[in-house]
Design a protein that fits this description.
Two copies of one chain form a homodimer. Chain A is an alpha/beta fold. In chain A, about 35% of the residues lie in helices and about 20% in strands. Chains A and B meet through helix 1, helix 2, strand 4, strand 7 and helix 7 of A and helix 1, helix 2, strand 4, strand 7 and helix 7 of B. Strand 4 (about 105) of chain A pairs parallel with strand 7 of chain B.
Chain lengths: ~575, ~575
C-alpha cells in the first residue's frame, strides 16, 4: 500500500484580502514541505475568504481571484515549493450566466472552485456541484454549479477532490467520484461553527469513509467573518471509521499525517470524471508528529467561538480597542470577559454610567469586574445629561426610561468617535428576541458578542468561565453578585426584568420552540406552556423584528441565529 | 370565437393577514360577479401577502394558509359567488422536504401555488415551477418547485395558468403549457416596482403573447410590503401585441375585459399537463367598461412608489402618525412632502432642531415648508442639550459633530415614544452609499422614504412635485431655497457637503458604476473619472457597510437597492 504524507492547512482568511490570504497559504506550504508532505490542501475559498456573498457577482473581483490563484502558483514555484501539490479553494469567473433547472440565478457568473497547483501552474480545477441555499447560505444565488469531476493521481494513489456541500448530499458527485475507485477523498470546506454541529459533521465524515471504504480528509478554514465563526476542526478518518488525525478547533493549524492508501486500480473512469496525474513531491522528512485533538466541552466550545468571533471582527476591521458599558449586570460582565479573552484587557475600555435609579451594587459590581479583569475603567454619571432633555421634551414613562439608555449609547459612541474604539453592545439573544432593549440606546454598537446566547446560557457561560479561572488559580473575572442578583435594566426604581417578562427558564424555552423549532402558537401551547404567556411572548417577538433588523451583528453559535438564518418580514399581521 | 369576460383583481394584501386578505378577494369577487365576469384572477400570494420569506418554513403558517384557501372557497359559495371561478395565489404545505438537483433547499416545505376555486371547493391547483433566487428574491430557499401543469376549460376555452417567474424563462412550463393549445394564458404575479421595470415587463408580456399567438392576462398585486412596492399595472395583451386592458399603477383595482378567445381544440394534452373543466359562471351583465390606463412619466411613477411604500408601511404596521426632523434641507423637505402625500399633513409632525451652527435659512426654510404643507410643526433647540454632554465628555471634532445629530435622534425617538409616531429618517441613497450620516443620529428611524433615491434624483423629484402643485393651482410644498441652496449638514460653521464629498453629479455617477453596475475600481476609472476620487468614493462605500446594515428599510425603486438586493460582507479587505 502506498504511503502518502498529507498536510491540511487550517488557515484564517479575510474576505477580499487575496494577497494576505495567499501569504497564509505560502506559509502553510513552507511548513508542509519542511515536514515532507506529498500533498497540501487548504479550505474552501481560502484565497478569497468565505462567504464572499455578492462579491461573486462583481466581474473584477472574480478576475482578481483568478489571477491570485495563478500568482500563488508562480510564487510557490519561486519559493522552491513548486513540487508540492497544493489544493486551494477560490471563486472563479466571470463566466457567462446560465439559467439552471427550475431555480433561477440569472446573475450568477462565478463558480466555487478547488484548484490544484504544482510547478508554477494550475494543473487541475474542480467546481463545487452542490450549492447550499438554506440557513445562512445563498450559494445558488451567486454560483454556477460544476458538472465535471476530478481525480488526482499522486504517488500512485487516486485522490478524489470535492467541496464542502458535495459531501453532505447522497448520490451526485460523491457516488460518481467513488466509482472512480479513489483511495483518498479530500473535501475542502468553509463550515461555520454551530453548537452541537460536531455531532453532525464528524459522524457524516465517518459515515462517508465507511460507506466508501476510503480515507476521507476534511479540511476547514478557521476564524471569524462577520457573524460566522469557522471552527477548523479538520479531520482525517479511515475506512474503518477511525480518526487518524484531527486539528484543534478555533486555531490556525497545519495538520500532517501519514496515510497508507490503497493504490490506484485499473478501474475505468466514470463519465465526466477527469484524471490528472501530478509529479511526485521531492520534499522529505523522517518523522511526522500527528495531532489528534480532542474537543472541549460544550460551554468551552461556545466560549471559544465567541472569543474568536469577537477577536477577528476587531482585528480584521482594524480596531485598536473596544469599549462597552458596564452596568454590573451579567450581560455586560460576560461581554467584558469575552473581550478581554479576545484581545487582552489592555484593549478593553469599560464605562460605568450610573443614573439616579442605579443601585449601589450596579456601581460596585462594575468596579469589581473592572478590577478582576484589569480593563480600562471610567465612570460617567448620566443624571445631569438626562435631565435637560427630559425637562425640555417633558418625557415620562417609557420615553424617559429609553432616554437614559440612549444617553448611555451617546456616551459610548462619543468616546468611540474620539478614540476609535469599537463599541460592543451587550444584549443577549433573549432580549433581542422579545425586543427588551432600547434601540439607539443599549443596542448601539458595531458588534454584539452574545447576541446569539440566550439568557440562561449567559449565566452558564459566566459560571463556567469563573470555574476555569479558579481551576487555573486566577481571579474569576465575573463578580458572583453579577451572577446571583435578579437581572434588572434599572431604568426606574426597584425595576427587575421579571416585572415585565416571564421567568427566564420559561421564556427561553418558549423562544426556543417558537424561533428555533419554528412552532406555531398552538404547537407551543401544546408543549405545556400557558396560552396567555405564549401569546404575549410570540407577539413581542414578531413586533421586535424592526429592531433586530437594525441591530449589530454578532457571532452565530446556534442553528438559528438572528440575521441570515432567519429572514422574516417586519410588516406582518398574524391573523 | 367564444367570448370570455375576464376580471383581474389587483388587491393589496398584508403579509400574514389571511383573513383580511381573503376579505379583499371576496370583495373583488362580488364586484367581478356584478359585472358578469366568467373568471376572476388575483395576484401571486394574494392570500398571504408577498414575500413571506421564512414564514414558508413554519409548518403552522402553511397549514393556516391551506385552510384559508378552503375557507375562502366556502365563503364565496356562502355569499352566492360560488359559480364564479376564482384563481388565487397562496403558499401551500407543509410538504416533505426534497433535495433538488445541484441546489439544496433541504428546509423547503412549501410550494408557491395558484388554486382555482368554484362551488365551495378547490377545483385545481398549480405550483410555480421557476423559483427566482436572485436580486431580492430567495424563493429557492423556501419553495419546492412544481412539476405538473394545468389547463382550465372554461366556457369552451382552454386557459393555461402559470405563476410570475414561469413567464420569464424560455422553455419549461411555458412552452409545455403552450403545446396544450390554450387560448388564454393567465399569469398571477407579485412583481415589485423598479424604475424602468415597465420597459422590461410589458415587452415580455407582449413577446409571450405574440410568440404563442395567445392572449396573455398578467395580474399583479399592489401595495407596499417593507422595502418592496408592488405596482399593480395588471395588463391584458392579445396575440398581435395589442393592449386590451390595463389597470392603473399603485392602486387597488378590478380590471374587467371581454376577450374573444380561440376555442378549445382537440389537441392532445402534453405530458404532465392536467385539464380541469369548470362549470360556466351564471353571472351576467350587459356592458363592461374596460380601462386602458396609461403610465405616467418616470418621476411621477417614482413619487407614487415612494408615497405608496410609505403609506403602507405606516398603515399596515398601525402607526397613528409620522415624525421627522426638518432641517430646511432638500432631503427632509422631500420626505415631509412624501409623508403628507402618503397619509395627509394632519398625521405628519415636523420638528426643527436648530443648533448653534444652524443658519438662519435652515430655520426659515423649515418654517416655510411646514406652512406650505400644513403639517404639525415644533421647534426644539438643541444647544442646551448638547453642551452638558460635550463638556462632560470633552468631545471635539467629528465626535462633537455626531453628538448634535445624535441629540436630534434622541429628540425624535423621545417624541415617538411619547406619542407613537413612526420616525422617518431622511437620508438619501448617496448619503447611505458613502456613509455620510451619523449612525443613531440622523439615521435613527423606522422607515427611510428616500433611501433608494440618489441625491440628484432627490432634486429632480422636488422640482417635479412643485411643478405638479403649480399645475394644480396649489402651493408648491418645497421651498425654492431648499432646492437651490448648497447642501450642508450644518454640524460646524459654514460647512457644505462639498467640503468632504465630490460634486453630486460626479459622486452619483461613480456610485452608479460601482454599486448598480458592479464595476471594479479600474473599470470605473476607465469611464473617465479621476482615480483618486474613485478610490476615495469606493473606500467610503466599502467602509459604510456596517452602517447600512443597521439602517432603516425604505422603498426600493432601483434595480439595485441597499438591502436584500446587494448582500456584501462588512468585514472586507480589498487587496
Amino acid at each position: 500500500m502506498p504511503r502518502l504524507r498529507l498536510a491540511l492547512g487550517q488557515t484564517n482568511p479575510v474576505v477580499g484580502d487575496l494577497a494576505g490570504n495567499s501569504d497564509q497559504i505560502v506559509d502553510a506550504a513552507k511548513r508542509a514541505s519542511a515536514q515532507g508532505a506529498d500533498l497540501l490542501a487548504v479550505g474552501e475559498m481560502a484565497i478569497s475568504g468565505y462567504p464572499i456573498e455578492d462579491l461573486a457577482s462583481r466581474p473584477s473581483f472574480l478576475a482578481d481571484s483568478h489571477r491570485a490563484v495563478e500568482r500563488l502558483a508562480k510564487r510557490l514555484q519561486d519559493e522552491g515549493l513548486g513540487d508540492l501539490p497544493v489544493i486551494v479553494g477560490h471563486p472563479d469567473g466571470p463566466f457567462e450566466p446560465r439559467l439552471l433547472g427550475t431555480s433561477n440565478a440569472p446573475t450568477a457568473i462565478a463558480q466555487n472552485c478547488a484548484s490544484v497547483l504544482q510547478h508554477g501552474h494550475v494543473k487541475a480545477r474542480y467546481a463545487k456541484h452542490h450549492l447550499p441555499n438554506y440557513a445562512v447560505f445563498d450559494e445558488y444565488r451567486i454560483f454556477i454549479p460544476g458538472d465535471e469531476l476530478l481525480v488526482l493521481r499522486i504517488r500512485g494513489v487516486d485522490v478524489a477532490l470535492i467541496v464542502c456541500e458535495d459531501l453532505w448530499r447522497d448520490g451526485g458527485p460523491l457516488s460518481r467520484v467513488m466509482d472512480a475507485d479513489a483511495g483518498l477523498l479530500v473535501v475542502i470546506n468553509a463550515s461555520p461553527f454551530e453548537r452541537d454541529k460536531d455531532e453532525v459533521r464528524l459522524p457524516l465524515v465517518t459515515r462517508r469513509a465507511v460507506e466508501t471504504d476510503t480515507i476521507v480528509a476534511y479540511v476547514n478554514i478557521v476564524g471569524g467573518q462577520d457573524d460566522l465563526v469557522f471552527d477548523g476542526d479538520s479531520v482525517v478518518v479511515d475506512g474503518t471509521g477511525s480518526i487518524l488525525a484531527r486539528a484543534p478547533q478555533f486555531e490556525e493549524h497545519l495538520l500532517v499525517v501519514d496515510l497508507d492508501v490503497a493504490g490506484a486500480t485499473g478501474a475505468e473512469l466514470p463519465e465526466s470524471v477527469a484524471r490528472v496525474t501530478l509529479a511526485d513531491s521531492t520534499a522529505s522528512a523522517d518523522v511526522v508528529r500527528t495531532d489528534i485533538a480532542t474537543l472541549p466541552d460544550d460551554r468551552e466550545q461556545i466560549w471559544n467561538a465567541l472569543v474568536l468571533g469577537t477577536r477577528d471582527y476587531v482585528e480584521k476591521n482594524g480596531f485598536p480597542s473596544v469599549i462597552l458599558g458596564l452596568s454590573g449586570g451579567i450581560d455586560s460582565s460576560v461581554c467584558a470577559a469575552l473581550a478581554a479573552d479576545a484581545i487582552g484587557p489592555d484593549r478593553v475600555y469599560g464605562v460605568s454610567m450610573p443614573s439616579r435609579y442605579s443601585s449601589d451594587h450596579s456601581r460596585s459590581d462594575a468596579d469589581d469586574l473592572a478590577e478582576n479583569i484589569g480593563l480600562h475603567y471610567s465612570v460617567e454619571a448620566i443624571a445631569d445629561l438626562v435631565l435637560p432633555i427630559e425637562t425640555q421634551l417633558k418625557l415620562t414613562g417609557t420615553a424617559a426610561e429609553n432616554l437614559q439608555a440612549r444617553i448611555r449609547g451617546i456616551i459610548l459612541m462619543g468616546l468611540s468617535n474620539l478614540d476609535g474604539h469599537l463599541v460592543l453592545t451587550t444584549g443577549n439573544k433573549t432580549e433581542l428576541s422579545v425586543g427588551y432593549s432600547t434601540i439607539y440606546g443599549d443596542s448601539a454598537g458595531g458588534f454584539a458578542p452574545i447576541k446569539d446566547v440566550p439568557k440562561m446560557l449567559v449565566w452558564e457561560l459566566a459560571r463556567w468561565r469563573n470555574e476555569l479561572a479558579a481551576s487555573r488559580g486566577e481571579v474569576p473575572p465575573i463578580p458572583e453578585n453579577s451572577i446571583e442578583k435578579p437581572p434588572s435594566a434599572e431604568l426606574r426604581p426597584d425595576q427587575t426584568d421579571q416585572d415585565s417578562l416571564p421567568p427566564y427558564e420559561i421564556l427561553d424555552a418558549i423562544l426556543d420552540a417558537y424561533i428555533t423549532r419554528k412552532l406555531g402558537r398552538e404547537d407551543v401551547i401544546a408543549l405545556g406552556f400557558d396560552a396567555e404567556i405564549v401569546d404575549f411572548v410570540t407577539k413581542l417577538v414578531d413586533r421586535a423584528e424592526w429592531k433586530r433588523r437594525q441591530g449589530a451583528i454578532g457571532p452565530k453559535i446556534s442553528g438559528m441565529a438572528f440575521g441570515r438564518d432567519r429572514r422574516l418580514p417586519i410588516t406582518y399581521r398574524p391573523s
